[in-house]
Amino acid sequence: MGDKRFNIGLPDKLGNELSKDFELNEEFFEFIGDVLIESCFFNVSVSVKRKHSFWDLEVKVDGFLQTFCDRCGDNLKVLIEGKDLYFLKAQERNKNFHDENIIFISSKKTDFNLKPLLEEACFLLFPVTRKHKIENCNKTVISKLDDIDRKMNGQTISSKILKDLKGKLKK
Ligand SMILES: [Zn+2]
Question: How many Cα atoms are found within 13 Å in the side-chain-facing hemisphere of 55?
Answer without folding.
Answer: 30
